[in-house]
C-alpha cells in the first residue's frame, strides 16, 4: 500500500506542471479577479454576520475596533446589516459569474487542445489507443476535468472564507488560539478518510465508461453482426455487467461523499464545542465576542458540508486529466505543408521505397504521372495500406530515393509536394450533416453548380434526383440515408472538387459493382488531368482502366504496364 501511495504522489507531482500550464492559458488576470471577488465576499459576509451581534444581544459592548456597529439606533444597525448582506450577495454573484466564464474557457481550451493535438499527431499514435478511448477523451473525459476545475474554484472560495472567518474569530477572541491545533488535527483526519478508496473507485469508473464507449461504438453495424450470430443475450449480459459496475461505482462515490460529509460535520461540531469549552473556561472573554465568534464559525458549516464533495470531484478529475494529458503529450507529426496549391507538373520517379514495419516491403522503379491511374493489388495483409500511407506522405519509410523531373528529392520534399492530397479509404463515413456540408468541407469555395456537377460525375444524380434540394439532403436521417456505395460516391465527389495533387483511394470503390467502379475511376482520370491517382483494389478488372499496376507479393512490389501485360500474355500463348 505504501508503494501505491508513493506512486500516486509521484504521479500527482508529474501532473502538477501540465495542470498549471493549462491554467496559464486562461490568463492570470481572470483568476486574480476571481480571487479578489472571493476575498471581498468573504470579508463582507463576515462583516454581515458580525452586524447581527447588536441585534441579537443589544447593549453588549463590541470588541475593540467594532464599536461603531453599536452606534446609532436599532434601525441604523438593521440598515448596516442589510447593506453588508447586499454587498456580500452581489460580490458572491459576480464571483460566480467570473468562475463560470473561467470554467467555460477552461473546458473549451481542453477540448480544442486535445482535438488539435490528435489531428497533428503522427499516424502511429492512433494505433496505441482504441477509437472508444479517443472518443471518450474528446467528450466526457474533458467534462470530468472541467468539473474538477470548477471544484478547485469552489475550494478556493471555501479556503478564503475559512481563513478570513478564522482570522476574524481570533481577532475578536485571541484566546481561541489554543483551539487551533485541535481544528488543524480534525481537518487532517477528515481529509484522509476514504481518500485512497475514492481514487480507486474513480479510476475504475473512468475505465468502465471507456469500455462502454467501445461497446456503443458504431452500434448499427454491430447490431447486424450480433443478430446474425444469434448472440443477443450474450451482448445484453455483457452490457448489463458493465452498466452494473458503473451503477455500483457511482453509488460508492456518493456513499463515500456522504460518509465523509458526516465525519466532517461531526468533527466540525466537536471542534466548535472545544473552542467554546475553552472560551467559557477562560476569564475575560466577553459575551459579545463569543456571539460574534459563533456567528462567524456558523458561516463555515455550509462550506464544510460542500468542501468534502468538491475534494472528491477534484480527485475524480485526476485520472481524467491524466488521460487527457497522455493524448495531448504527443509529438507533432512533422508534416510538411505544400509550398503552394499548384499541382505536380512533372513525373515522380521513385527509384526505391522500402518499408521495414509492420510488413517488410521493397518497391523499385515506380513512376507516378499526373493524369494517370496506378493500381496497387495484392493479397490482404501484405502491406498495401502501409504503402499508401507512405505515398500519402504521412509515414516515413525506412529508405526513400526519388526524382522529380531531373531533380533528386528526399522524403521530406516528397511529402511537401503531395501535401495537397486526398486520401479516401473504405472505412471512412462522412460525418457532416448534409451533402452540401460534406462537399463544401472538401472545397470551401465550390459553387452549387460545381457541386451538382460533381454529383453527376460520380453517379449520384439519379439518387438525388431533385436538383433543387439534392445538396441539402440529410445524411443521417432514415428517410434519406445513403447506402455504402452511395457514400463512397459522395467521398469521390469530394476528391473531384478538391482537385488534389495526389488522390489515394484505398478500397474506396469496394462497395460499388464492377461496372460502376470502372465508370467512376474513368471519370476521375478524365476530370483530374493534373492529379496522380493511386487506387487499391482486389478486382482484376480495374487493371483495364489503369495505366500501370503495382503488384505486391513476397515483400516486393513489381510494376507492370498494359503493354508489358500484353507481351507477357502473348509469350505465354
Notes on the protein architecture:
- The protein has 573 residues and is α/β, with parallel strands linked by helices.
- It has 19 helices and ten strands.
- The protein has helices at residues 2-24, 28-50, 53-56, 74-120, 131-138, 140-172, 180-192, 195-216, 219-229, 232-281, 287-298, 300-328, 384-391, 411-417, 435-442, 448-457, 484-498, 514-527, 562-572; strands at residues 348-355, 361-368, 373-377, 399-404, 407-409, 421-425, 502-506, 532-536, 548-553, 556-560.
- Strands 5-4-1-2-10-9-3-8-7-6 form a ten-stranded mixed beta sheet, with helices on both faces.
The major beta sheet can be summarized as: 10 strands, mixed
Any idea what the shape is? Answer: elongated
Would you tell me the structural class of the helices and strands?
alpha/beta
Distance between the termini: 78 Å
Rg over CA atoms, rounded to whole Å, is 34 Å
Provide the residue-averaged pLDDT: 78
Q: Helix and strand string, N-terminal first?
A: HHHHHHHHHHHHEEEHEEHEHHHEHEEEH
**Fraction in beta strands:** 5-15%
Q: Helix proportion of residues, in percent?
A: 55-70%
* Poorly predicted segments: 336-341, 565-573
What is this structure's SSE topology?
Elements: H1 2-24, H2 28-50, H3 53-56, H4 74-120, H5 131-138, H6 140-172, H7 180-192, H8 195-216, H9 219-229, H10 232-281, H11 287-298, H12 300-328, E1 348-355, E2 361-368, E3 373-377, H13 384-391, E4 399-404, E5 407-409, H14 411-417, E6 421-425, H15 435-442, H16 448-457, H17 484-498, E7 502-506, H18 514-527, E8 532-536, E9 548-553, E10 556-560, H19 562-572
Parallel strand pairs: 2-10, 3-8, 3-9, 6-7, 7-8
Antiparallel strand pairs: 1-2, 1-4, 4-5, 9-10
Helix pairs in contact: 1-12, 2-4, 2-6, 4-6, 4-12, 5-8, 6-11, 6-12, 7-10, 8-10, 8-12, 10-12, 15-17, 16-17
